[in-house]
Amino acid sequence: MTGSPAVTAYARSRLYAYLAACFRYPDEAAWRELTGRKSRATLAFACALLGEEAPYQALRLHGGGMRLRGIGSLGALRETYGEVFGHTISKQCPPYETEYTNMHLFQQSDFLADLAGFYRAFGVRVREGTERLDHLAIQLEFLHLAAFKEARALEGGDAEAACVCRDAQVSFIEDHLGRWAGVFAKRLKRWNAEGPYRAAARMLADYIAAEARANAASPAAVADVTRGEFLPMAADEWDASDWQTAGENGPASL
């Protein structure tokens, strides 16, 4: 089974959309994405199609998507999400890029500004009151959009626009998601070893690694440590105010 470049780009976009639904706070749309018969069928098709190409062969194992055994409702999934990721910011597996890459708040601002530049270039911005720019689901949704625009451009015969969209995806993986997705996934597999997010973590790690291989991208992996682990208190969860008052006990730099 092979597809045209446009169909392949649609399949890549489909994977990003599914993973974004896995990792954002569960809402009605995410629940439909994870449990709907049609959405699961299109995910299986996309994994099978991409799995025919050498860089993406590992996706053949992920056509069934996230395992939700024992989770029969949106409420149950929300409860599990809270247990895994916490109600503030988990220090075990925070789903935020800058919790791994920037120990100082001013560095975090620079990273967030760079992310905003990517989003702005594609005419989108994160709705206020939802999530931070560096949240995993936001980054996956951005790549879903960029891959979808690439597919539409290829379908319309606009090779130049398709190239712009693809270049943006490669840069984004090299500069952002490709750097921390593997470390996050490793931590999440360990933290939710018996739960549904283990399968989602494996799928994330395999797909982002495949995207990097397919595009000859070489993102520099972040260190396997989170900002929360440097805090002096022993709490499992913390928030920004904890960090701002850490004083001399805070880390010097990453």
Our measurement of the CA-to-CA distance between the termini, rounded to an integer number of angstroms, reads 46 Å
Residue share in β-strands: under 5%
Order of helices and strands: HHHHEHHHHHEH
Number of helices: 10
Radius of gyration: 18 Å
User: What is the β-strand count?
Assistant: 2
Biggest sheet: strand arrangement: 1-2
Task: State the secondary-structure class.
Answer: mainly alpha
- Unreliable residue runs: 233-254
Average pLDDT, rounded to a whole number, is 88
Helix content: 55-70%
Please tell me what the overall shape is. Answer: globular
For the report, how would you describe the main beta sheet? 2 strands, antiparallel
What are its keywords?
disordered C terminus, 254 residues, 2 strands, mainly alpha, two-stranded antiparallel ribbon, globular
Q: What are the SSEs and their pairings?
A:
Blueprint: H1 5-23, H2 28-35, H3 37-50, H4 74-85, E1 89-90, H5 98-101, H6 105-121, H7 136-155, H8 159-191, H9 197-214, E2 237-238, H10 240-244
Antiparallel strand pairs: 1-2
